[in-house]
Amino acid sequence: MSSETTGGQLRGMASNAGYGEAAEALARQYESVSFAEVHREVLHLFPARPGSVLDVGAGSGRDAAALAARGHRVVAAEPTARLRALGRRLHAEQEIEWIDDALPGLPRLTARAARFDLVLLTAVWMHLDEEQRAAGMATLAGLLGRGGRVVLSLRHGPVPAGRRMFRVSAEETVTLARAHGLDVIHEARREDPHGRAGVSWTYLGFRLRA
Question: Coil, strand, or helix at residue 131?
Answer without folding.
Answer: helix
